[in-house]
Structure formats: structure tokens, C-alpha cells
Write a structure and sequence with these properties.
This protein is of the alpha/beta class. The protein has 3 domains: about 1-105 and about 235-305, FAD/NAD(P)-binding domain (3-Layer(bba) Sandwich); about 120-235, FAD/NAD(P)-binding domain; about 330-405, no CATH class. The chain is built from 9 helices and 26 strands. The strands form 7 sheets. A 5-stranded parallel sheet has the order 3-2-1-7-19. It has a 5-stranded parallel sheet with strand order 9-16-10-11-12, covered by helices on one side. Strand 22 (about 315-320) and strand 23 form a beta hairpin. Helix 1 packs parallel to helix 7 (about 290-305). The longest helix has 13 residues, at about 10-20. The protein is globular and about 60 Å long.
Length: about 400
Amino acid sequence: MSMLIIGSGAAALSAIKAIRSNEPEVKIRLITNEDPPFYYRPMIPLIIDGSRTTEDIKLTFDPVERFDVELVHGTVVTINSDSRTVSLSDSRTLSYEKLLIASGSSPVMPEIEGIKGEGVFTLRTIEDALKIRAYCENSPKVAVVGGGFVGIKVSAALIQKGIKVTIIEQLPFILYPCADRISAEILSARLKKAGIEIITGERVTAICRDKGRVKGLRLSSKKVDADMVIVAAGVKPNAEFLDGSSVRFDRGILVDEYLQTSVADVYAAGDVVQYKELITGATAVGALWCNAPEMGKVAGSNMSGSKVLYEGLLPAMHASDIEGIAFISVGIIDDESGEYEVYSYRDGENYRKILFGGERIVGFLLTGDISRAGIFTNLLKNRIPIGGKLKDEAINKTLHYIRFHK
């Protein structure tokens, strides 16, 4: 039996562990186009400000050695499910008996005039971070297009280097849909205090250049000076190699409850997957780090003889420290439909919001004081009902784990 994995992110690593647990002797090969292949992706921005090195964010162990994996450096260009082969860009062909597609995602580049060329970057890999760090040494003004977590983190790193940073977000507030208007207001105030300019409700229409060099950005109603641009406008699945294959793809790879694709013995996990959400049942692309390890574990288990169901994607799960303010949001945090009970409380920078669907927590958001976040996450992910006094305790911040100890 031979198993082939495309990708080296969190989903792939989790799958390897699951496979080895069931099949100690099976041959596992992993294709990656990153060097180094295994590292903590959320820590990439820290390379930019110099607080971490490439070595610092590598895994503390070598998966290749620990799990006896053959590492193949290359880029996948096609999959042929009839012959059970994968072709690489250098003309090599690898065969498989079972295949896992965990190829991750890559940054979206919007259709903006002047976006192609020197001085425009995205941040997804260690290589990206090193390029940004080198270029910003001679770029005193940086514009960040996108006010999501990547945009916020890279802005915070650049400020540490004494660079003037402007975030441009076309939505009314930053961090949507992970934050609501109130939490975004709290976090924006902290970012501005740190020296970051934030412009919301404005769309970038062009990147202005002079002799090829970035000189600024033209927005819907104004201009912004900049010597460098970082685009943080979301991600898309890495799935170009599926063109012409039998693997069904919509916005992501379509899978069943065992994370098997439309092709027998071909599985998918991580950012490339489109599946139902845990709370609403609506289909979505699972491009969140929190979903990847669980999907990898389920896919790897099923590839190696188990029969494990995947419950569904979390629509959101983010935990971070933003300029000294702790922030976490999980599940649904806005009730646009009016179908949920919403409880919120604010005291300065401390803000709590919990949403209930009947007796179940369907989402929560905490800034500043994040106590009980672990309890709420467990209740939400495992769909544990709470009612009456327990519900009151959740709202009043007195709910404790002892309540669920059997």
C-alpha cells in the first residue's frame, strides 16, 4: 500500500499522524513546494519584525524522520485518477493507491490597476515574509490592502520597525466577519494608538507608480502615499491541478462525510475543502487553520482503515492578541437573520457577546477579558445544550467546568 499526500500544512501533518497510528508500515510520500516544509504558519509575521527567525517557527520535531515519510519537493500540475498518478511540473510522475489533497490556499490578488510589478507583496509563506522584510528596509511608508487578521498582523510587525503603515479596508470596519462593529471599534482604537492609520469604507482603484516604483494608492475618494503595498485580501484554494480531473470542485473540493472526494481513494482536507458548516449546515470552504488539523485527522484515519465521520466546519474560530488586547471569536457572531438570542456586555475594552440557538451556544466573541472561552468553545463544538441556570451562568460569566464533570 502506498499513500501520497499533496501539501505540508496542518492538515497534511495531522493526516500523517493518523495514518501512522493505523498503518505503521505503509509507504507515505508527501509532495511540497515549500522550503522549509513544516512550520507554524500563524507565526510568519514575526519574521518581518525580527522577533522570530525561520528556525524559531519550524516544528519542534521533524515529521519526515518521526513518521518515516518520503519528502518530494515539487509542484503538482495534474492528477490522473484513472492511472492513479500525479504529475509534477518537472515531468516526474508519482503513483499512489490512496491520495490526500491537502494543498492549502494562496492569497487572492484583486483586479487592481498597477498591482503587478515591483513593490507589491502577499504574505502566506516564510519566503514571502523574508521578501517583505528585505524590501521594507527601504520603504518608509507601507499600505496594507485588507483589514483581516493577516493585514492586522503584518501591520503590527511593520510598526515595530518604525514604518508608517496605512490599512485600507473596503468594508465599514476591520476584521469582518470575525469581529462585530463594537469589537472592531475597540481593536481599531488600539491599533491607531500604536501608530497605524486605518481607512475603512474605501476601495483601492489603482496602485500608482513612477518609473515602475510604487508611489501610492488611489482609493475611491482619496489618495494614500506608499512606497510598498502588501495585499491581504483573502485566500483561494490551491486546486488548479484539478483541471481535467474527475475530482468535483465548486468553490472548493466537494467531499462526503468521510472527506472522500467524488473519486474513490482520493481524499481532501484543509483549506481546499468545501463542506457543510457545523452550526448552520450551509456549505462553505474550510479556509481556517482551526479546521485543518481535525480534517487531516479524519481523512488520514479513513485512508488507513478507520471509518470516522467529519462533523463539519467551524464557520469561524480566531484567537489572537492585537496590540495587547486578547481577542477570540468562535462560530456565528452576528445575528443578521434575527433567529438567535444575543447577549452582550461592554466595560471599556472588555466586551463579551454570546449567541444562543435554543439551548445551544452557536457563537461568542470576547475582547479583553477572555475568561470562559475554553468552556464556550467546548460547548459549541460538541453542541452541548445548556438551559436555565447554566445559561444564566454563561451570560453572567460564572459558568465553570465543574458543571460538566461526571
